[in-house]
């Protein structure tokens, strides 16, 4: 669940035991999101997806992270086409062939949050939109590779933006990733752009969400009438991908990636 760009302050370091709890929760959440992706089909309402997520989170022994966060009224976010993030599920919102649907889910498990998102192309979707989905996945992959001890969050954002721009797309600059742990949104805020060697230094024990959001059009966003959903102002389609990560002395691990889905980050 993306945050608005503000300022950074204190970054918490997690113990190995806390990270393992988050990893366990992250695997449950990954299975839930995989099921949601499979059920994202023409004729399904976004409310039905929210209902499914509610049931699966409870069965996994968790609680919804998003419900009530900033007044958010649902369990997951389902954002369609020009909606970037925080699309509110509704019985009236029916998924159609050709839609591009971003699913964003978060769960509290044993006191710790995990958060992840993916974008689904429903049915016959234009090749350029499929290429944009692949680009957002690849940009996350490259961002994760930069999320290593000793690098900075500016290195991460710079890498994401340079790759996205190289593909002819643009990052949404007014929304960002975030630290995560006992709270859904912790410091630091993680921009999808930036300057190399700038920003907080990445250290082992940090846990955070990288979540590139990109579009082919002007990336300026507006807040919809529901006061929750962020949309691309010019009506262009947006796509979104996210993982919860933990930093170790020898690298970075995606806690919300299923072991059998390693190629998913590669965009294959």
Question: What does this protein structure show overall?
Answer:
This protein is α+β, with helices and mostly antiparallel strands. The protein has one domain: Creatinase/methionine aminopeptidase superfamily (Creatine Amidinohydrolase, Alpha-Beta Complex), CATH 3.90.230.10. The chain contains five helices and 16 strands. It has helices at 16-39, 46-59, 127-146, 153-166, 262-265; strands at 3-4, 63-64, 76-80, 83-85, 100-109, 112-121, 170-171, 175-179, 186-190, 207-210, 213-215, 221-223, 230-232, 238-240, 243-248, 251-254. The strands form four sheets. Strands 1, 8, 9, 10, 15 and 16 form a six-stranded antiparallel sheet that branches. Strands 2, 3, 5 and 6 form a four-stranded antiparallel sheet that branches. A three-stranded antiparallel sheet has the order 4-13-12, with no helix packed on it. The two termini are 24 Å apart.
Please state the overall shape, judged from the principal axes of the Cα atoms.
globular
Number of strands: 16
Largest sheet: 6 strands, antiparallel
CATH architecture assignment: Alpha-Beta Complex
- Radius of gyration over C-alpha positions, nearest whole angstrom: 17 Å
CATH fold name: Creatine Amidinohydrolase
Secondary structure category:
alpha+beta
> What series of H and E elements makes up the topology?
EHHEEEEEHHEEEEEEEEEEH
| Number of separate domains | 1
Low-pLDDT runs: none
Helix count equals 5
Q: Distance between termini? A: 24 Å
Mean pLDDT level: 95
Portion in beta strands: 25-35%
CATH superfamily: Creatinase/methionine aminopeptidase superfamily
